[in-house]
Write a structure and sequence with these properties.
293 residues; alpha+beta; 7-stranded antiparallel beta sheet; 9 strands; globular
């Protein structure tokens, strides 16, 4: 699947470039309202490299992080393509979860994807997460990912817009896709020990392999394409809204939920750390500040 891997990896890089440009555009255009007296933020871009146990090349990517902007308090947009061999624990987990017993004999893997998390200055602007990825082994391939909205102060019309935009992008792939992926997101982004959802949901899928690579890639691509039109209008509307210390307190407490979920339950975090990827890139999803009471 050399050609398919190249196409997928190139798409994730293209999407990363579009999002980085759009987010820096938000920083430039924020000229009124809270935090507008600050300098516009810019992404710091760092190349990440992954080293194989024998010291050889095992892939890498780009870690793009903006801190202390006037719209984004911290946002990371990472893209990576990594490969090598899965360790014994990862092999066992993969074999059990995917029904791939051949992993022990041939543990090679290849994975590429984009991962984004945004934590906002204004508490009225919702935090957001987006991730799409392709995974390959000699025994099978699949896609996964989605996006979900995480407001600390919820506005029903914002939630409705976010979901409606995603539905519009998924409906061409079958009207059953959006409700199925929405339900999956509600289940996946649930925090059992808090008995509540992390945010207001979105769409999510994993282990997507219909047998038609082109169709599954097209669906994955449209999940990514839905992100900017679903999210940017919400930020443009809420970034000028007045906020006070009480609003910020609500935001910091809500960020604690986000940190708990990512450290305890998130599969991407676990996989990244288990396979030796750059720890700073894996943990860039954590908020700059949070609060537990």
């Amino acid at each position: 699947m050399a050609e398919e891997k190249q196409i997928a990896s190139a798409w994730f890089r293209q999407l990363r470039g579009e999002i980085v440009a759009a987010f820096e555009g938000l920083e430039d255009s924020h000229d009124s309202g809270p935090f507008s007296d600050m300098a516009p933020g810019r992404f710091e871009v760092t190349e990440t490299r992954r080293e194989a146990p024998d010291g050889g090349d095992a892939g890498g990517g780009l870690m793009s992080v903006m801190r202390g902007g006037r719209v984004f308090e911290k946002v990371g947009v990472n893209v990576s393509t990594v490969y090598g061999e899965l360790g014994p624990e990862a092999q066992a987990a993969m074999a059990a979860r995917k029904g791939l017993p051949g992993m022990k004999d041939d543990p090679r893997f290849w994975a590429s994807g984009i991962s984004l998390v945004a934590h906002m200055q204004n508490p009225h602007c919702p935090a957001v997460h987006m991730n799409t990825r392709m995974f390959w082994t000699p025994h099978g391939w699949w896609f996964g990912g989605g996006s979900d909205l995480n407001p600390c102060i919820e506005y029903a019309e914002d939630t409705a817009h976010f979901h409606a935009t995603q539905k519009a992008h998924l409906d061409p792939h079958g009207t059953d896709q959006y409700p199925r992926l929405k339900d999956w997101a509600d289940e996946y982004f649930y925090i059992p020990h808090r008995k509540r959802a992390r945010g207001v949901g979105g769409i999510f899928m994993d282990d997507r392999c219909s047998g038609d690579w082109q169709a599954d890639f097209a669906l994955t691509r449209d999940i990514g394409r839905a992100f900017l039109p679903a999210y940017l209008p919400l930020v443009e509307k809420r970034r000028v809204q007045p906020c006070d210390a009480a609003d910020k307190d609500v935001q910091l407490i809500h960020r604690g939920l986000y940190a708990e979920y990512n450290l305890v339950y998130d599969r991407g975090t676990k996989f990244g750390l288990a396979t030796g990827h750059d720890a700073n890139a894996v943990l860039m999803s954590l908020p700059p500040m949070a609060k537990w009471v």
